[in-house]
Structures are given as structure tokens and as C-alpha cells.
Amino acid sequence: MCLGSKMSIFDSWFIMIIRVLLIFCCFNSLSICSKVDGNGYIIYCPCMGRFGNQAEQFLGSLLFAKYLDRTLVLPPFIEYRNYQVEFSPFDKFFKLEPLKQYHKVVLIEDFMTNIAPKVWLENERFILCYGPRKGDNDQIPDCNPFDGSPFKPFWHHFNITRFQSSIFHQPLITQFNEAEFWKERYKDLKTLAFVGAPSSFPTNQEAIPLQKYLHFSDFIADSAARYREARGFTGKPYLGVHLRHGSDWIKACSLLKENEMNQLFSSDQCIQRYGVDLKEFKLPYELCSHSVDTIIEDINRALTEVNNQKLEVVYIATDYDDHSVWQKIHKKLPEVTLITPTATYIKNNITRGYNQAHYIIDTYLLSYSNYFIGNCVSSFSAFASRIRLHSFHFDKTTHFFASDLLHTEKLLKDEL
Questions:
Q1: Structural domain contains residue 11
Q2: Same domain membership, residue 220 and residue 202
Q3: Which InterPro entries match (predicted)?
């Protein structure tokens, strides 16, 4: 017993010494603790729109990094609360290991602390953009990376307050056959920093299947489970519904009334799903902004389509908590439990006062719903539908409001 006790003390001291040596190495040789990518890095501000747009452009940026064989620096997700810009670290929402199976990635927090001091010194920082952006001094062409929000808050959040100069790049978007051009032209820049995501919007079709590498973090899964429990539908099959009908969205949809368009935002997700020929196609307004009748009709259709399981709950994620709309739905479908952001409708009872779920919890619950109805034009809906298609293979249980307008027979009838 005495010998065993002495061995235990020796082991403890040995482990402590090893830890001290490792810490010493981290401060003196980053190559030991943070492996530096000799091909370089890509860093960008996800400064376009909210979560759906940021996630859409992330896929294109990941593909871009793969083509150039540079490590992608994972930015936080930018949120807007009470007119303030906030940041959520990438790994708070999604796991890193699945992404690393596809390509090299590093959190921006780790990059700035452990890698930037070696490969991105302050006097080596240049900012790339396609063309000059407006700023304080428009006489000198500049990317103006700190002009406006969330550009300035983003870079300043990571103590980046100055770039040496701007570099205007061409082409706007990289394709595989242009990768060698990019590699050769910027081979001396260890870090390519972009004023915005190096991806188109909507993103490259080739990038969409990369959605399968985005796995929700355990924190988000646990948070969603707690929210389901608090709202009383744990273990119950449910229909997930995403509604965009806020004033900003309706204003955006009005573009379809003012112009003949065959594509808007993420509408390609429906166009390709239903095999629409874009040559003669005009995107219907109803596909973007739905009437209450359309909403009720499509929800009712989904409830009756699922024969092998009874959907007891309709869960609504939305940008506008409109109680008048919820009451109309509840009146038409009184037997179904309707869970809205701040109220629950059960037969003749309405319980108010709930806290609205965070948007990433909404995304998780829509992605894992037994049946999903989304907005064809919305990038937020696109994220959930692609998770279902490329990760969970729930394709047959995904529907879009007013998508019957995309059926060939309907299009031909409307043209006659």
C-alpha cells in the first residue's frame, strides 16, 4: 500500500511537469500547439443579412477554401438585438469535427490568438474586395472594411482596427477551373481577408450538398429539447412551419409585383425540386408572401398526408408573431395543438406568456420536425430544408407554401 501511494504521488508530479512544459511550448513554438497551414488562410466578415444568408454564404466560402486548399477561419454568427450587434461563436451552434472531415477549419478566436501572431502580423494585413466601397474618403478607391455595421463591429471585436491597403480581386467568385489562378496570384499572401463572404448569394449549387457537414452542437440539441419540454410537446410528432410575413419580408416580396423575376433569394430550392423551366417562368408573389387561406390549406394538407403517424402539434417559427393569423388557423384546425412563439392554442384554450425561441432553436426544431413546410424564397427555410435533404434524408416530408403554383400543369393553365 505504501509503495502504491508513493507511485501515485510520483505520477501526479510527472503529469504536472509535462503540462508545464506543454504550456511553455505553446508560448514559444506555435508549430507544436497550433499547426500552421503552409497554404494559408481565408478569413471574412459574414456581413450580409441574418442567419439564413450567413449560413448560405458559409457553404460557398467553405467550397472556396477547399478549391484554394487554404484553411477556412470560421467566423461567429452575427446577431442583431435591440439595434446592437452581437456575436455567437461558430462552435456554439455547430460541431467542428464533421466540417474537418471535408476541409481544414479553425475558429476565428483560435486563429487570432494562436496563429495570427505568426502568419498575419498587423503590418501584413490587407483587405480584399471586388470593388471600392463607399467610405469617408471616396476620392481614394478603398474596400473601406470598417465602414458601416456590422463591418466595423465585426473587425473591431477581434481587435482588427487597421489594414495596410485594399486589394481589388477578380473574378468575383472562384470556380474550380479558376483555383490555380487564385493560388498563383495570391501565393505571397498567407491570409486572404475579405470584406464580405467570398461566395455568391444565393450560393453556388455545388456548395449546397456541403450542408451535410453542418451538425448542430450538443448545446443546441439540449437547448431545443428543453424548449420542447417547456412548450409541452416532447415526444409528440409535429409539423414544423416556417412563416415569413413581417413587414420587411413583405416589402422584399413586393419586388415580384414590380418586376417579372424567375429567381429571388433562395427560390432555387423550389425551382429545382419541382423541375421548373426558367425560360418561361415568372416567380409568383404568393410563393413569397402567402395569404392566410394558402397557409391554412397547406397546413391542413400536410396533416392529412401523413398516414403512418398522427401529427398532434403544429410548431410555428416566424419573423412576426401575429396572433390574428394564429387565431384564424386555430379556428379552422381546432383539433390540433398550435404552438406559436408566445402562445399555445389547444382546442378552446389559449395560453399566453411563453418566451419566443432563439432563431437557432427554431432552425433545429424545423430541421427535426416530422413534416416541414417552409417559404420557397427564404434562406432560413432553405437551411432547414437542406439539413433534411442532405443530412437526415427527410426529403419526402418537406413542402413549401403555395408550391402547387410550380407544378407544370398549373403553370400552363395560368398562361392560357
A1: no
A2: no
A3: GDP-Fuc_O-FucTrfase (IPR019378), POFUT1 (IPR039922)
